[in-house]
Amino acid sequence: MKKLFGTFGVRRIANKELTPEFASKLAAAYGSLVKGWVAVGGDPRTSTPLIKHSVIAGLLSSGCNVVDMGIIPTPTVQYAVRNYYDGGVIITASHNPPHYNGIKFVDQDGIGIAEDMELEIEDMFFNDNPNRVSYDEIKEVITNEGLVDEYNEEVVQRVDHDAIAKAKLKVVVDCGSGAACFTTPYVLRKLGCDVITLNCQPDGFFPGRNPEPTEDNLQELIETVKATNADLGIAHDGDADRTICIDEKGNFVMGDKTFALVEKQLLQENQGGLIVTTVATSSAIYDIAEEYGGTVTATRVGDLLVARELKNRDGLFGGEENGGLIFPDFVYGRDAALSTAKIVEILALTSKPLSQLVAELPAYQSVKMKVECPDDRKQEVMDKISQDTQQYKVDTTDGVKIFRDEGWLIIRPSGTEPIFRCFAESKNVDDAKKMAEWGISLVKKHLKNK
Fold it and tell me: 303: which residues sit within 8 A by CB, 6+ positions away?
């Protein structure tokens, strides 16, 4: 069982648990396995330079060449590795609060490393035996400053530029002071959109809002969309791999709606294809696939698992319910900039407002809740919940997904935070809320009963 790695990478409180010594040793273990050119980049958190330089030191000590990419979105690092390098390290805690940071490792395809490699790294870390080269074998550190511009241009080339420019769309972009500051606003302007920016100066304290693009955190964006009569609002998380939309009326659009909208467009364009998602994603994804000639396969929660399945099975498109969409012909990971470009392309090609496009999708209501749980009690609580729900039809691919007459809910421990998450979906929002509350009550019950 893994001791350090979560759903994707390692996240800890910066300079308390995630110290320079911790980061350097972990990176040295990774570098001992990669032994090549490794790209390193990260989000704008205040602790990122500290962790990044420690990671670079660890990689150099194990004999790797390093490309320091500076502050850069996660998908841009993944793009760079897939096209030019042997591996990559991303310094980010994604949507976590500012005092967190994390380290994500990717393989030569830009996909989060496989579990067997994580276990090898942990073995070297805990047994204090990463490879350390002699002084005359230490390699160099270089930069690749033009990579962001290249990535932005590649995004622009993947959508119908002329149709988007002709539509003259007004878009409000809230980058949350994260890494998307260097991509999404520039991409949208290249596509001919009228762009209004919020929180588009990188700042590791995230002064405008919390990095997680939830409805509560996006009230300024919602009000700005309404006040400016914009066609669309776009929000990203700290490392720019998730995209959340606000429609022209100021309504928050759940990530699974965005997923279904792009899925529908891609299946129509390609006359079908394989869609990969997780067990926590909306039934709408299956309905859309059935209507437009696609098939769906589901993995455990985690974008790296979705990405790996897309690669192994030559899938068309994939994603999660949180606004993380994966375009495998471009980047094997969630990609906020290309997601944004595809959404504005859909608006332009259909000449329909986002609210109408969402209303045309299969109608399901979802509710998400979470409750704190210490990491060392997650397995115990999960085991008890599994025993408690045996009378229902369940799917145990990840946590426990419970099917009831009203719909379904999934209860699972987070791989990145000391919490349990509960997602519920039904045709009726009240039923979804009741199921989610029931799921949270099960976690609380078993937390009390040691």
Answer: 8, 112, 241, 319, 320, 324, 326, 333, 334
Answer yes or no: CATH 3.40.120.10 is held by domain 255-359: yes
In this structure, the number of other CB atoms found within 10 A of the CB of residue 375 comes to 12
Considering the segment(s) 164-253 as one domain, its CATH architecture is 3-Layer(aba) Sandwich (3.40)
Q: For the domain 365-448, what is the CATH code?
A: 3.30.310.50
* Closest C-alpha to 80, from 157, 27, 152, 147: 147
- Over residues 123-171, the pLDDT tens digits come to 999 998 999 999 999 999 999 989 999 999 999 999 999 999 999 999 9
Active site residues: 94
Is 11 within 8 Å of 100 (Cβ atoms)? yes
Residue ranges of E strands in 201-341: 232-236, 243-246, 252-253, 273-278, 294-299, 317-319, 325-326
Residues with Cβ within 8 Å of 189's Cβ and at least 6 positions away in sequence, in order, are: 195
Query: pLDDT (tens digit, 9 = 90+) per residue, 256-295?
Result: 999 999 999 999 999 999 999 999 999 999 999 999 999 9
Domains 10-147 and 365-448 equal at CATH topology level:
no
The number of beta carbons lying within 10 Å of the beta carbon of residue 393 is 10
* CB-CB contact of 405 with 396 (8 Å): no
User: So what CATH class is 10-147?
Assistant: alpha beta
